[in-house]
Structure formats: C-alpha cells, structure tokens
Design brief:
By secondary structure, the chain is of the alpha+beta class. Helix content is 20%, strand content 28%. It is built from 18 helices and 50 strands. The strands form 15 sheets. Strands 16, 19, 20, 23, 24, 25, 26 and 27 form an 8-stranded antiparallel β-sheet that branches. Strands 12-30-29-28-13-15 form a 6-stranded mixed β-sheet, with helices on both faces. Helix 1 crosses helix 11 (300-316), helix 4 runs parallel beside helix 5 and helix 4 (84-104) packs antiparallel against helix 12 (334-346).
C-alpha cells in the first residue's frame, strides 16, 4: 500500500496571495497560541511546523548585538553624506549580513529595528547619533534609502523587515518615560509626522516602534495617531512593536492606567501588535492579555488583528517558503569593507579651511594628538568590530609611520592612599580574550563585567594610570596595558574593560575633593572606592538594617592623593612643536555624557580637550581640529586654519579621515543639522514647538556657528541657469553646477524654498530637494527636480488640512542653507485663506495660532487634545481671523478641572469670564460653561486667557 500524503495546507502554498495564506494560518492557531504570538518572543507551534519568531534585531548602522559584523558610520554620519544612493547600498549590505548571520545563528532576527527617523531638533539630545537630520525631508530621503536597502529588490519577498523608531516627537532622554512633548498641529504635521509619513509612503517599511515619551499628555503606546495617521499612509499591514518595557511603564512610571490589564488592552486597541516586555519571559504579558480578554477589555478580533499583522511580516520574509538564494547571504565581503570606507569618507565634513588642507603626504611631518587620536569608538547600537582603523593608524598608513608622531594628551597619575601606599594593577594573563559583544547577546544590557581577573591592590609600587576627564568631572582611568578600570557585580575594581560601555557604564569615576585629597566615586554604582585587605573595591551599599558610614556623616571611601606624573598638554605641546602640522582629534565617547538614557548638558568641548587644543595651537599655528563626535560642539574656530567633523565612522574611520587629510578624497559631507555657537542659542530641551521657539535652520533667527547643509571642498563649483516652470502637479526646477577646481570632487547641490509674504510664520528657508554630484574638473551637470506643489503647503489650523497659499515663493539653489548661489521667484495660484468659520465649527483649543505659558494635554485617554496652563503660570491662546459674522451673543467652553477662561478680542478688554463652580472630579470629566457676550462681530483676533489647573478642549459661539 502507498502511504497517503497529507495535502499541503494553503498557508504553505507559495502560489496563493499572502493575504489568503495569512488567513489560513491564523485560522489554524488556537486562541492560546494567538495570544502567545503577541509577545516579542513568539513560541513555535510544533503541530503546524511553525518556528519560533522574535521581533527586534538592532541594525542602525550594521547588525548590532549579535557579535562581529561590518560597522558603518553612525546614523548621523550617514545623514551627513546627503547621499541616498550610498545609504541604500549600506542598507543592502546590512540586510545581507543579517541573512548570513541568521544562517549560522538563529537568534539573529530579520525584523530589524531600524532606522531611527526622529528629527535632530535639539543637539543636546543624548541619542543625536541615531538620527539622520534636523530636516524632515532629508531624514525621510536617507531613511527611505536605508529601508529600501534593508528590504531588498525582490518584488515579493523582503530580505529584512525594517521598523522605524521612535514614534513620535521623541528628543529627550531626561525622564523620557514620563515627560510629555507638547506638539501643536502645525508642528505635528509639518515636522514630526512628515519624516515618518514620507518614509512609510515609499513602501519599504514593515512597521514602527512607539517611543517611551508622551505626546500631548498621552503615551505614544496608546497614540491615536497610529490609527488616524500611520495606518492611512499605506495598504501594507504594518507591525507596531512596543519599545522595551514600555507596556509596563503605562502603569508603573506613567500611572496612566490603574492596572496592567487596562494598559495592554488599550495598547492593543490603539495599534500595538507586539509587546516587548520582561525580556524573553512572555508569561507576564501573556497573563495580562488573557486577563484583559476575560474581563472584556479587548476582544478576540482585537487579538486576531495584531497576530495577522505579525504573520504578514513573516510571510513577506519568506519564512514559510524556500530559503533565499545564496547571494542574499554575504558577510564581511571585500565589497562590504570597501563600502564601509566609502561611507566613512563621504561622511567627513570640512567646516573650515584657510588653505592648510590637504596636507602633502610626501613632505609633511604630522603630530596627531588628542584623546580620540588612537580610538575607534563604538556606540550602543554597534556590532563588534571585525576590522579597526583609528586616525593614528590611518595616518601611519597614508603618511608613513616615520612622518607621524603621536601624543594622546592624557594625564598620567598615581593614586596614593592615606596609608602612603599606591593603587596597583596586577599583571593580566597573556591569554587573549574576546572583544566585548563578540559572543552576541539578545540584550547586551544583561552582560556583566569580568570577574576572572585579579582586583587592584594597594602597595609600595603604584601603577601609573591614564586619566581622561570627559567633561563635568567624569573620568576614566586606564592601565598601561590599555584596559580601563571597571567595577563588576562583585564590587571589586579591576583593569578589565577594553572600552567604557554597557547599559550601566562601569568604567567612569569622579574625584571629589575631601580634606587634603580626593574621594573616588564609582559612577556606575554611585559608591566610593575603598581599600580592603582582599583588594580595592567599592563600599557596600546601604541597607535599611545596616546604613553605611555616610548616613552618620562619616567617609565611606579611601581618601586618595592624586599625583600627576605627566601633564597631557605638555606632551601635546612638545609633539606639536616638532611637526609641520598638527591634527588634534577631539570629540566624545558615545557611552559617556550623552547617550541613550542621558542627555548632554552643554555644547562646549570638555575642558581637558580644550586645553589640549590650545596647547597644540600655541605650539604650532598649522593646527587642524578633527572633531569625531556623535553631536555638534560649540568650538571657536577663529584661530584654527582648518576644522573637520565626522561622526564616529565605524571600522574604516581612521583610513577615511587620513585620505581626506591627504587629499586623496575631496570632502563633500554636509552638516545634517545646525551647529549653534553657544548654549544660549538653544531652546529648552523639552520645548518641542519648533515654530514658536524658532528652532532648527527652518526658524532659527540667530547666527549659527555653522549652518545646516554647510560643508567645504578642495574644489570649487559655480551655479547657473536656475529656471522654474509651474505645472499642474509640480514645479520643474533645474540649474547647472560646474566644477571650476582642479581635482575630482563631489558637490551637494541643495534647493530651498521660502514663502515671500506668508500669512502665518513659515520657514526662513526649507529644503525641498538635493543631489550629490560627482564631477571632474571642468565638467558641468544639470540638477533637475520635480518639486510637488504639496512641498509649498502648510498645515492650516483654520481648516484642519494642508493648504498651498497663493502668492510668491522664492527658490534658492546653492551649497548650503546659507550659501545661496542662484535664486528666482515664482508665483503659485494656490487656495486663498479664509477666516475661521467659528460659528459653524467652533474652535478646538489646540488649533491656536500663537500661545504662551500653555501646553497641550490629552482630552481623553483615547483621543483628542486640550490645552492647559503650565503649572503655576497664566496661559494665553491667540486665534487669528475668527469670523463672527453679524455677531454672537453667547460663548461656550468645554473645560475640566478648576480655573478660569477669559475671553477678549485682541487688544481689548475681557468680554467674558467662565469658571466652573467647583473643580470637576477628574481631568477627563468635562463641563460646558456659557456666558453672554456683546459687541463680538466681523473678523477679529480672539484671545483666551487660561488661569488655574484647568483643561480647555473647545470653544463655541452662538449667533445673535
């Protein structure tokens, strides 16, 4: 007899449409299996032959956290290339490496959490390195390119499935899970949503991740914009993955819901499809979902919708079909190495050059100095390095070691105990150890420090340590063998770390003056260092039963004497004096003073690095400042003949910088964000109103240190022939760029627009198109763009939609937002504005034109906005051009809480005061109040004063 072969289930049939296959597989899953699929770690369903699945593989600039991989420049460096074609190739390389790594390690995921499209609104944001630009169009252009590379070119199957981070208006790490970004409608639509929307509409996005913060008083994980905005931009099933621990935050830190069942149900109904919480343990989230289902807080249909979205991604990844062809598996290939170098070269921005650069490799003696001169720094979202090139190594290779002298500029110190002994680092074993992260970890935050090495001791023979002050007194200490002092979980101090790093950095310290010496505080534990019989360690933590000495005003740590055996600025000055030119490499360590969970506090370069820079410049006027950093700095370039900036450039950073310095590559990177001259130029970190507080190049009215789009070249370019022709859907703009220099070079041609006579505040200039051109000397290229008419629109709060205002618009073509070479003016017909029809529509409070002293709050937990005064201050709202017709006799307001609303016509007396007799029972319990008014007619500006802890949702008017 012949055994009967069971029929192939429809979900395994590659000839069927994905939607039918998803429906079939969903129908075969039990209710229990469906709920379990909602956690990040979805278990296998053995009876169906369905494998386990996890959402979330970090891949911001290379495959991260899973061991060695090609490391490309940081995202802000990729943004500085202004080159979508290059970034797409980077995305392709990353996705191929993800496939190759998964083939040998099934922990590597294909649902990649990248790119980050949060706009670089504020340069002190700790995660500045993760974004592409302060401009939404440049951000979306780079993000779209990266997602297309990650997705791949197959018409049906995706190489990886990219998820955009972090939805929405997220630019602060300070109290990031409890702060609310107040985002008025114009900023929401014209700025924060735009980068997400354009990228999603391009068609290579699998989903988004909500951010930890709240927007307008409502956590992003229950944001109505997921439904009202995101899911209307595409017909694809988008998978919304929560950020790690964020579902629990809804109750634990945000106190937005009373119970976790309410929280997960509200998140699911709002559009969250996969819950990243409690690590690999899915039982907690599954239990909450099951309880919410039993209590009727959600339905089986809600669960099915979310599971369907996950299955849609899995089918697009080809999980249920044959493996992708071999060429999709490429890892550390020569092409990838060359691409990493090309990307690093294109990311270098020449900020200033008085003719010192390029340096002549055959005749120039170079001193390369500075704390980052022999470093190849990684960040939290980097993979482990397969290859490594520091600026020093790059210069050795390009100029010859005999022509390059190195001085790091660290202070060399001994730490003497109160007993007269010195801290001593025991010799480390000769056995090589793997680089941090080489083993890979689904959550590297769980990686512990090393305990296999002997701890430091105190004795007559001290070890000279390299001390670096990274700013604000935050120090690292390094042993002569290159290992950093670190404190593992057992509390002992060891020279054990290759670099500072980890979710909690264990390699930073602070010297605190005490008597005639210093206490040494370990910042990771917050405890002082002491010397014990069994080694040097941190003081034991206080407990309720056993409070430490500090509870009684006593010292808990050793008092050290700091003996400086060598001052870093002196070694830098000596090296600089012997050289023809000096390259000072300064910047940041991506794990210190600015990173995820920690915002920066200043634009200033750390004092120790300023000291090294001044020492080099005093010794040698031919000093180049090469800034290698995740974020902008406010440096004074007046006395410096040349300044460059590059983000941390990945594995080929040093080679790239050396080739630019030598003139092998003409720099053509451009700043993706404004570099401000001083901290005083910055708005508050939590002020998200880019229009009202005049933020970014779009609205900033001061003089920047270096403007958006700025970047110099070793060549010169002439612009000409700017023309613009208005069509029914777009404006055809073209101009020419001619290479007038002597060396082949790239130029980034940039096109901006501005409304000449706008009726509302509009950007001073706004990027609408750009192109990176490669030109030979004497070559001319045409830059032609079809700029859609929608690019000239603004969000009109009077009518609640986009509108192109009729009138004149200036087009500006040039090399940066400030370096305009050609300009012309065109006239657009557009749609005339009309006064606000307040009699028919009333006024939503958040649709103001101007405000002071207010913030936007959630009208209800589910949807809608209200406006409330900032605590303890009076608030004002201004609504321009309100059409009251022949007159109104009564005004109504919908308010909650307690306080007063005062109504007046702009410049006039208070016409009505409305206040509830008693505060309402809660912030979502609204009452409607009314008052008679007289003399309100025609088109007038309306001003509302808000006093006290109330929320104003709407204003209505009754005609006379």
């Amino acid at each position: 007899m012949t055994a009967h072969t069971p029929p192939t289930p429809p979900f395994r049939d590659p000839l069927l449409p994905f939607a039918k296959r998803v429906d079939d597989l969903l129908s075969r899953l039990t209710p229990d299996e469906r709920i379990k699929a909602l956690h990040q770690f979805t278990p296998a369903v053995g009876r169906l032959g369905v494998a386990a699945f996890r959402t979330g593989q970090e891949a911001l600039h290379g495959v991260a956290w899973m061991g060695p991989a090609t490391v490309f420049p940081q995202a802000v460096g990729l943004g500085a290339t202004w080159n979508p074609g290059l970034v797409r190739r980077v995305g392709e390389a990353v996705s191929r490496e993800a496939r190759a790594m998964r083939a040998r390690d099934e922990r590597v995921g294909l649902n990649v959490w990248a790119p980050t499209v949060n706009l670089l609104r504020h340069p002190l944001w700790g995660r500045n390195e993760e974004g592409y630009s302060e401009d939404p169009r440049l951000t979306s252009a780079i993000a779209t390119a990266y997602t297309r590379g990650l997705r791949g070119d197959h018409p049906l199957y995706w190489r990886t499935a990219p998820v955009l981070k972090h939805w929405l208006a997220h630019n602060n790490e300070t109290d990031r899970d409890t702060t609310s970004s107040s985002v008025r409608p114009r900023v929401l639509h014209e700025y924060d949503l735009r980068a997400f929307r354009d990228t999603v509409e391009a068609g290579a996005v699998a989903g988004v991740m909500p951010a930890y913060n709240l927007v307008n008083g409502r956590p992003n994980h229950v944001s109505p914009y997921l439904r009202e905005q995101l899911r209307t931009w595409t017909d694809e099933e988008l998978l919304v993955c929560s950020d790690a621990g964020a579902p629990s935050n809804l109750v634990d830190s945000e106190h937005y819901f009373d119970t976790h069942e309410e929280a997960v149900a509200a998140s699911l109904r709002a559009g969250v499809d996969s819950f990243t919480d409690h690590g690999t343990d899915s039982s907690v989230i599954v239990g909450r979902l099951e309880s919410a289902l039993r209590k009727g807080l959600l339905t089986e249909a809600d669960i099915d919708t979310a599971v369907r979205r996950q299955l849609s991604v899995r089918f697009r990844l080809g999980e249920f079909d044959q493996d992708p062809p071999a060429e999709e598996h490429a890892f550390d290939t020569p092409e990838h190495r060359a691409l990493a170098q090309e990307a690093a070269e294109q990311a270098v921005v020449l900020l200033k050059n008085d003719g010192l650069l390029p340096l002549a490799p055959a005749s120039t003696r170079i001193a390369v100095v500075g704390l980052l001169a022999d470093e190849c720094k990684l960040d939290w979202y980097s993979g482990a390095l397969l290859h490594r090139s520091t600026p020093l190594e790059g210069l050795y290779e390009r100029f010859g070691a005999e022509r390059v002298e190195f001085a790091e500029g660290v202070d060399r110190v001994l730490l003497r105990t109160s007993a007269g002994t010195f801290l001593h680092v025991p010799p480390a074993p000769d056995t090589p150890d793997a680089a941090p992260g080489a083993e890979g970890a689904l959550d590297p935050a769980l990686l512990a420090g090393r305990t296999d090495l002997a701890p430091l001791t105190a004795g007559p023979d001290g070890t000279e340590l390299a001390l670096v002050d990274w700013g604000e007194g935050l120090l690292t200490l390094r042993a002569p063998d290159g290992r950093y002092l670190s404190v593992a979980e057992d509390g002992y101090l060891r020279a054990s770390a290759d670099q500072p790093g980890g979710w909690i950095v264990r390699e930073t310290f602070r010297l605190e003056p005490h008597g005639d010496g210093h206490l040494l505080r370990h910042m990771g534990t917050g405890r002082h260092v002491l010397v014990a019989a069994d080694g040097v360690k941190v003081a034991a933590p206080d407990t309720a039963d056993e409070p430490g000495p500090e509870a009684f005003g006593e010292v808990s740590g050793e008092v050290f004497g700091l003996i400086v055996t060598e001052h870093g600025e002196e070694t830098v000055a000596r090296a600089a004096a012997r050289a023809d030119a000096v390259v000072v490499v300064a910047g940041n360590d991506p794990h210190i003073n600015g990173r995820e969970t920690e915002d920066r506090t200043t634009l200033r370069l750390p004092a120790q690095q300023e000291l090294l820079l001044r020492a080099a410049r005093a010794a040698n006027e031919n000093t180049v400042l090469a800034l290698v950093s995740s974020s902008p700095y406010a440096v004074d370039p007046t006395d410096l003949p040349a300044v460059l900036w590059t983000a941390h450039g990945g594995q080929a950073a040093g080679t790239a910088l050396a080739r630019v310095l030598a003139g092998d590559v003409s720099p053509a990177g451009r700043l993706p964000q404004t570099w401000y001259a001083d901290d005083a130029d910055l708005p508050g970190l939590l002020d998200y109103d880019v229009i009202g507080s005049r933020q970014t190049y779009l609205y900033f009215e001061g003089t920047p240190l270096f403007p958006f789009g700025h970047g110099l070249s070793y060549a010169a370019f002439a612009y000409g022939g700017l023309t613009a022709r208005v069509g029914p859907e777009a404006v055809r703009v073209s101009f020419t760029v001619t290479h007038t220099g002597a060396v082949p070079a790239d130029e980034v041609a940039q096109l901006y627009t501005r409304a000449v006579d706008p009726s509302v505040p509009r950007p001073r200039r706004e990027l609408v198109a750009h192109r990176r051109l490669t030109l030979a000397p004497g070559e001319t290229a045409e830059a032609a763009f079809d700029v859609p008419l929608s690019a000239f629109a603004f969000w009109d709060v009077a009518v609640g939609r986009w509108r192109v205002e009729p009138g004149r618009y200036e087009l500006l073509a040039g090399a940066s937002s400030a370096d305009v070479r050609q300009r012309t003016v065109l006239t657009l017909g557009g749609e005339p504005g009309v006064p606000r029809p307040v009699l028919e529509r009333g006024l939503d409070a958040a649709d103001f034109d101007e405000q002071s002293g207010t913030e936007i709050a959630d009208r209800t937990r589910e949807s809608g906005d209200a406006v409330t005064p900032v605590a303890g201050k009076p608030g004002e709202l201004l609504f321009r051009r309100c059409d009251f017709g022949s007159g109104v006799t009564e005004v109504t307001v919908e308010v909650s809480g307690g306080g007063t609303v005062e109504l007046s016509l702009d410049g006039g007396p208070v016409l009505a005061t409305l206040s509830p007799q008693a505060p309402t029972s809660g912030p979502y319990d609204y009452v409607t109040l009314g008052a008679s008014v007289d003399g309100v007619h025609g088109v007038q500006d309306l001003r509302l004063g808000l006093r006290g802890p109330l929320r104003l949702a709407r204003v209505g008017f009754l005609p006379g």
